Amino acid sequence: MHEESSEFDSIESANFSLWSPVCRQDGSDVSCRFDVTSPEFLGINQADSRLLQGFVQAMDVCTGTVEKWSVQRFVTPYYTYSTDTENWQDAFRLAWRVTLSISGASRYRQCGKVGPYPADGLDSTWTDELSILPLEQEEVVIIANEGPVRDISFLEERSAGRHLEEIEYDFPDSPVRQVRYHLGAMHLPTSIDAVRQILDQCRPRFMVSHSSVAAGRSAWQVPAGWTEIR
Fold it and tell me: Taking the CB of residue 230, how many other CB atoms lie within 10 A of it?
């Protein structure tokens, strides 16, 4: 168990961006998953409770205490600035998938947008020796949001046992679905063409594969109301 810190430093700049929160309430406990990217030369290693409490506060999920968590490092074309570059280090963006549990939660509400949520903090377990650039061998995840056609059969057919995750965001106007296709560990310098083939299949169907579209969607997404825990 990691030690808890009850005070936060003054916010000076947004060190991180938080994306695609999925939260679930069970009595006074809340579980939450979300992606983290860093616009600065920072990153996440094992994370600590101080940083994660700040993340929960930035997304305005609830009040409570972060009890346990896990962090999965991966790379994806979804958060890149351009998917057409020939440079493999520019074609993939480093990100972290955080899963955490909150106890003693109150003032819980579902998050109201895909992101990004600006957040501040430093991971006390992060060191300068940890490269923030994609390494040659990284876990690769393709992330895509739904469009006019709800058909992912082509991904199901080619998944061949790989993990295919579907998330449905229950927004007030209509549900919005996101697909996360886990390709596993790949040698990135030689895998760009294989990833692009999948992206090319995504685009004409129901999905988009770039974070700028997710950021634009957040303008019309209305946050859900508060649910008080009795």
Answer: 6
The residue type of 203 is R
Q: What is the DSSP string of 216-227?
A: HHTTTPPPPPPB
The pLDDT assigned to 229 comes to: 43
Assess whether pLDDT exceeds 90 at residue 134.
no
pLDDT at 7: 39
- Dump the DSSP string for 113-181: -S-PEEE----TT--TTS--SPPSEEEEEEEEEE-S----HHHHHHHTTS-EEEEEEE-SSSEEEEEEE
3-state secondary structure string across 52-101 = HHHHHHHHCCCEEEEEEEEEEEEEECCCCCCCCCCCHHHHCEEEEEEEEE
**Does residue 2 carry a pLDDT above 50?**
no
Confidence of residue 13 (pLDDT cuts 50, 70, 90): low
Of 13, 32, 12, 30, give the one whose Cα is nearest residue 22: 32
Residues 6+ apart with CB under 8 A from 6: none
Phi, psi at 203, each rounded to 5°: -60, -50
CA torsion 182→120→113→166, rounded to 10°?
A: 10
Separation in Å, CA 190 to CA 13, 40, 86, 195:
36, 27, 11, 10
Interval 103-124: pLDDT, tens: 988 887 766 567 788 898 889 9
